[in-house]
Amino acid sequence: MSAPLHDPAAVAAGLIELLDPRAIEIAPDFATPATVAAFQADSSPQPGGHVFGGQVMGQAVTAVGRTVPEGRRIHSMYSYFLAPGDPAHPIRFQVDALRDGNSFSVRRVLATQPGRTRADGTTEGERTILAMTASFQEQQEGLEHQERAPEAPDPEGLPTTAQVLEGIDHPVARYWATQRPIDIRHVTDPIYLRPDPTSESPEATETQMVWMRMIAPVRAEPLLHDAILAFASDYTPFEPILRRQGLSWMTPGLRMATIDHAIWWHRHVDTNEWLLYVQRSPSASGGRGLTHGQLFDRSGDLVATVTQEGMIRVKDGS
């Protein structure tokens, strides 16, 4: 996905193209008896030369969604991040059908890339960078209750990422300000550049809230809006951990990587509309941190729940 700087419509359109893998032939030497489809997708350039985990999750959601009976929407998914992705190589998605019941379908997808290049120029075999299991359900009636969104200021009155990072001459800051396809506006103080000033008080930093939506309106099928939600949900889960620890994205020696990420869709939304992402970190230990998030729509309805665990470390002496 590439787009001119400061062109939100082009950036948003690029995300739709990015999250829609193209169907390819199933490789016989890699297929299982349950394999029903295979897809391939490219990666969006990122600062530091890595593949954004939310991108791979979003592409995997679309891939599995292309294989279920019509009328079934994703209601849950669980992903393990097994290896960093290489943006120089396309990503292949192999989809296995685990179950098709009267109202539920379960799929497994493996995202793979060629292995590392050896000194003699040859490459190792395929390596799996992500493994996801996802469940889909027909729309049905049933019992209803939900938590409601907490009080939060309207997003229109909050600064954009570009405004927060204005004047910062750094490649990551420029990318966040101009090339991210999701408009992220912090209710709690942003910690891009400096720690939360209230980090001395655990109670004050217990909860983080951000508003999110597409950076510009897009026309897309419902499946792609589900994929966009998965993509966007991966932007800020580390921040509640950093906030509680008195750290920022710019802390020297900081190293982070997602281990696993789960989403439950309670209601399906149009990601052109604002979503309030309420996050907290109940635990950090053993070099890992856990975060729990809830996504609410503008009317206050709970639309999704997100849980993520990541590796998070600060090098000694930094």
UniProtKB/TrEMBL annotation:
The keyword Transport does not apply. InterPro entries: ACOT8-like_C (IPR049450), Acyl-CoA_hotdog (IPR042171), Acyl_CoA_thio (IPR003703), HotDog_dom_sf (IPR029069), TesB_ACOT8-like_N (IPR049449). CDD domains: Thioesterase_II_repeat1, Thioesterase_II_repeat2. Residues 142-151 have a biased composition (Basic and acidic residues). Keywords: Hydrolase. This is Acyl-CoA thioesterase. Belongs to the C/M/P thioester hydrolase family.
